[in-house]
Amino acid sequence: MKDDIGEGSARSRFGKLLKRTRGQAGLTQQELAAVSMVAQSTISDLELGKKGTRREPVVRLDKALTAGGVLLGAWDAAFSGVGMTAYFREVAEAEQAATNIRDYSLGLVPGLLQVEEYVRAISEIAEPDAAPEVIDQIVKARQQRQRILDRSHPPRVTALLDEGVLIRRFRNPRVMPAQLDHLIELSYRSRVDIQVIPSDAEGHAGLGGSFTLMEAPGTGAFVYVESQQTGVSLKQPEIVARYDRTFADLRSAALPVSASRSTMEEIRGNIR
């Protein structure tokens, strides 16, 4: 029953996104059907959340609406069915349409910024009995999420990393060099800000744990907080405002972008 309810909610969220994207493109259902070669009845049912669909029609709808992968990414997040925990699916869907993502990380590099070696390492630690194909699915799902950074107009991403995240070591000695190289490369992108909170900073509000603030059309602003076994999306305005203030305080404690890059380069250079 929970799976049926969850899938129904996913269909409803996807339908609202499709309708909003179609409206922004200025197309009627009939016009969209003509240019996408997807039946108008199918589009209507999708927008009403009455039914799901295969991936291929979504590819055509995304292309017809020049959605830049937003629709397809949301479909993959909601219905691909592999490599992602159920409680994270709604967040992954919102991520695909997000305009602004702010992430504070106390323990791990944020998922959007992780390289394959890092994803495998932390997944094998979290799921030590998982079969190799399960780990492969997790890696694939993470990489699908990360495609939003390569769009022509990606969301604005601000990542605040506790310095401890950068000096962590794994059994595989190639993990952190590859991850640090990737973070340094990302730090040069115009819509990605990576800032380091130095380990000698005085105690701060972020010591309570990691969180993500996200803004997406139709969804509004919300905060996502994850523990070891579950995660929760908080949408109450007063709670979101509280986390917003915390993020602002943390950013004031962080090094500027250029100094943060230098810190990452120094840490990378010290790895033998």
Per CATH, the class of the largest domain reads Alpha Beta
User: Helix amount, in percent?
Assistant: 40-55%
Low-confidence stretches: 1-5
Quickly give the CATH architecture of the largest domain.
Answer: 2-Layer Sandwich
Biggest sheet strand order reads 3-2-1-4-5-6
Number of helices: 12
Briefly note the CATH topology name of the largest domain: Endonuclease, Chain A
Largest sheet: 6 strands, mixed
Name the helix and strand elements from N-terminus to C-terminus, one letter apiece: HHHHHHEHHEHHEEEEHH
| Distance N to C terminus | 52 Å
Q: Decide which structural class fits the backbone.
A: alpha/beta
Descriptors:
six-stranded mixed β-sheet, 434 Repressor (Amino-terminal Domain), 6 strands, globular, alpha/beta, 272 residues, Endonuclease, Chain A, 13% strand
Structure description:
With 272 residues, the protein is of the alpha/beta class. The protein folds into 2 domains: 79 residues, lambda repressor-like DNA-binding domains (434 Repressor (Amino-terminal Domain), Orthogonal Bundle); 155 residues, 2-Layer Sandwich (Endonuclease, Chain A), CATH 3.30.870.10. It is 52% helix and 13% strand. It has a 6-stranded mixed beta sheet with strand order 3-2-1-4-5-6, with helices on both faces. The radius of gyration is 20 Å and the shape is globular. 35% of the residues are buried. The N terminus is likely disordered.
